[in-house]
């Protein structure tokens, strides 16, 4: 059999082991965006993964989301590196405090490879790329409630050879039920739905291990940017405003919603990267358990007073702190901080929020992720786009760029 790039050739609907071996041996060939016609299927290549896509079964694969997948791989690599640094630092402190620890105890504290949960697998492309491209990753659990998607995912896992077959495991199940029955089990949980992630957030924040990461996408930008405020409030618990900063407000609404769900279980979030790209927003947050830290949540949330006549806006924080008997106490904030009419144009204010008004990025994480992307340029199909986004964010954090959006970010962060 000759392998002719760009032309169709015979392959059974369900590839035999010999055919799969043939494809496995061809995996090291040069990657391209070319789709090969294979008796009703297409071979989609992205990064180090390739999948069979059968248009007749309706299994979804959004090639435009390569930016999303590349950014996720970059942040995941940073997370694994930071996790190792944190574990080594903690291990050193423990040894200093207790130098008589037995070797068996030290061995027991060895850091395990992170477990990743992809809640909505579809074709399995994202899960397979995680397994094959991210060094130091452990098991990848892929879920989907659609049987055709699960069948396609299993087929693609086998299609990609031994690494994918050994690391990726797929289940036909409702992701919400699975996450609820596996509390604090996964170091990374990835939610990338078609539309709103709101119905997955409560179970997702419970399934992330302490110090783990939640990666979450929202594509319902019309809702988050104010075209349907009632729907936004019902899904995210916040009123959006139509303003020049609507995309950043969408990010902050999503972060506030995740924090709200986390607080119900004495947990809180720490954002490391929040981006608006193409037609969606994507946030990367770490989740920690701490009843005392959770008390600070009202200090990180604000209502927005937006003038209906000009660009003037003001932020009303939900909470404040005061000291009593040398102890820090928490209380509702004083207000209102605006007059009935705008001091600049005399028009009234409309109120939006609450939104997350603390920083939405961690500068150290952004710089580390960008450095990794540059160093591994050839391994990112969407290198130009994600490097540009990360560079812009790193420059804003360094006060290099001065724009309406950067002013808003710094105003909110202070």
In short:
The chain has 414 residues and is of the alpha/beta class. It has helices at residues 17-25, 66-97, 103-108, 125-133, 147-159, 162-167, 175-180, 198-207, 221-224, 229-236, 246-263, 291-294, 363-375, 383-397, 404-413, and strands spanning 36-38, 41-46, 49-54, 116-118, 140-144, 168-172, 186-191, 208-218, 267-277, 280-289, 301-307, 313-317, 319-324, 327-332, 349-356.
Question: Could you walk me through the main structural features you see in this protein, from its secondary elements to its overall organization?
Answer:
There is one protein chain. By secondary structure, the protein is of the alpha/beta class. Helices cover 39% and strands 24% of the residues. The protein is built from 15 helices and 15 strands. It has a seven-stranded mixed sheet with strand order 6-5-4-7-8-10-9, sandwiched between helices. The N terminus and C terminus are likely disordered.
The residue ranges in which pLDDT falls below 50 over 5 or more consecutive positions are: 1-37, 398-414
End-to-end separation: 65 Å
Tell me the series of helices and strands, N- to C-terminal. Answer: HEEEHHEHEHHEHEHEHHHEEHEEEEEHHH
Q: Assign the structural class, choosing from mainly alpha, mainly beta, alpha/beta, alpha+beta, or little secondary structure.
A: alpha/beta
Mean pLDDT: 85
The general outline is globular
Radius of gyration: 24 Å
Please give the number of β-strands.
15
């Amino acid at each position: 059999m000759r392998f002719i790039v760009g032309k169709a050739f015979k392959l059974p609907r369900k590839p035999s082991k010999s055919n799969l071996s043939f494809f496995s041996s061809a995996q090291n060939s040069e990657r391209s965006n070319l789709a090969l016609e294979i008796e009703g299927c297409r071979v989609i290549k992205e990064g180090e993964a390739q999948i069979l896509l059968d248009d007749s079964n309706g299994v979804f694969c959004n090639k435009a989301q390569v930016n999303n997948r590349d950014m996720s791989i970059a942040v995941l690599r940073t997370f694994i590196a930071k996790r190792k640094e944190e574990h080594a630092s903690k291990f050193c402190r423990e040894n200093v405090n207790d130098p008589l620890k037995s070797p068996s105890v030290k061995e027991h504290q060895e850091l395990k490879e992170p477990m990743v949960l992809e809640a909505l697998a579809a074709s399995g492309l994202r899960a397979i790329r995680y397994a094959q491209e991210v060094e130091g990753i452990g098991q990848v659990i892929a879920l989907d409630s659609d049987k055709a998607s699960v069948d396609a995912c299993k087929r693609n896992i086998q299609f990609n050879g031994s690494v994918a077959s050994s690391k990726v495991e797929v289940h036909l199940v409702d992701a919400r039920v699975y996450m609820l029955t596996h509390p604090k089990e996964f170091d990374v949980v990835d939610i990338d739905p078609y539309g709103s992630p709101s119905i997955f957030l409560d179970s997702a924040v419970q399934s992330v291990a302490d110090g783990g990461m939640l990666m979450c996408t929202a594509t319902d930008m019309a809702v988050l940017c104010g075209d349907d405020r009632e729907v936004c409030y019902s899904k995210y618990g916040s009123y959006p405003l139509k303003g020049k900063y609507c995309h950043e407000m969408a990010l902050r609404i999503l972060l506030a919603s995740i924090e709200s769900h986390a607080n119900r279980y004495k947990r809180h979030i720490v954002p490391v990267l929040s981006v608006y790209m193409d037609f969606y927003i994507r946030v990367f947050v770490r989740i920690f358990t701490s009843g005392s830290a959770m008390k600070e949540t009202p200090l990180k949330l604000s209502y927005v007073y937006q003038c209906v006549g000009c660009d003037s806006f003001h932020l009303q924080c939900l909470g404040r702190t005061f000291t009593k008997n040398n102890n820090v106490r928490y209380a509702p904030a004083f207000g209102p901080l605006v007059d009935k009419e705008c001091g600049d144009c005399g028009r009234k204010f409309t109120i939006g929020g609450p939104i997350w008004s603390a920083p939405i990025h961690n500068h150290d994480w952004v710089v580390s992720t960008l450095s990794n992307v540059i160093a591994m340029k050839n391994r990112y199909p969407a290198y130009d786009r994600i490097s540009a986004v990360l560079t812009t964010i790193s420059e804003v954090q360094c006060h290099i760029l001065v724009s309406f959006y950067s002013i808003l970010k710094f105003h909110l962060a202070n």
